[in-house]
């Protein structure tokens, strides 16, 4: 070891959660709801060229999920998450109260499937169609723990500290929110062979999978409209 090596204590996470469950539609559909909070102490933080290990923040919110059958032919699976994040301790005082970087505070997904083989004189589960809706709120970037350009709950704006390594100071970097819709059609040719066609991102929406905040930020663009053909066989 040299004097340039920094040894930090372990990061400590404290999680709390309370929730409830309901069984609906004659106990065929399970619905859950929960409130949660995670406090993080000893988080790593970079200020210029100096890394410290004494930052703290929390993430709290609500999570609602459903899974199961509404009828014997119609099934759904999905969830909604709404969160809030906040820096509670930082070497840079103006960071306190700001939200975290690279985190979506709202997300939603719902997958619905329906069996309709009986409309053609077949067993109901021989034919199935369905769709999925996915939503993610905007994400602010940041190469520190705070989001650059985002605002805190009291309206304060967060900006990264000026450094020679970051020429994008005072330029908010943000991934926009998006909706994505998928659809599929599936059929059982025999008891052992299933064919499926899926259309992902059916409206060809441009959105971004990931955000990489460095001295030269870049993003990863999600695939556009994609059609997939699938054959499955059981032996």
Structure description:
- Strand 9 (178-188) and strand 10 form a beta hairpin.
- The chain is 0% helix and 54% strand.
- It has 235 residues and is mainly β.
- Residues 152-158 have low confidence and may be disordered.
Instruction: Tell me the Rg in angstroms.
Output: 23 Å
- The number of helical elements comes to 0
What is the CATH top level name?
Answer: Mainly Beta
Task: Predict the CATH topology.
Answer: Maltoporin, Chain A
Helix content: under 10%
CATH-derived architecture: Beta Barrel
* Through-space gap between termini: 58 Å
Largest sheet: number of strands, sense, barrel closure: 9 strands, antiparallel
Total strands: the figure is: 13
List the secondary-structure elements in sequence, H or E.
EEEEEEEEEEEEE
Q: What's the number of domains?
A: 1
Please state roughly what percent of the residues sit in beta strands, choosing from under 5%, 5-15%, 15-25%, 25-35%, 35-45% or over 45%.
Answer: over 45%
**In CATH, what is the homologous superfamily?**
TonB-dependent receptor, beta-barrel domain
Lateral strand order in the biggest sheet: 1-2-3-4-5-6-9-10-13
3D shape: elongated
Structural class: mainly beta
Contiguous uncertain segments of 5+ residues? 152-158
Mean pLDDT: 87
Keywords: Cell outer membrane, Membrane, Receptor, TonB box, Transmembrane, Transmembrane beta strand, Transport
Membrane topology: Multi-pass membrane protein
Family: Belongs to the TonB-dependent receptor family.
Subcellular location: Cell outer membrane
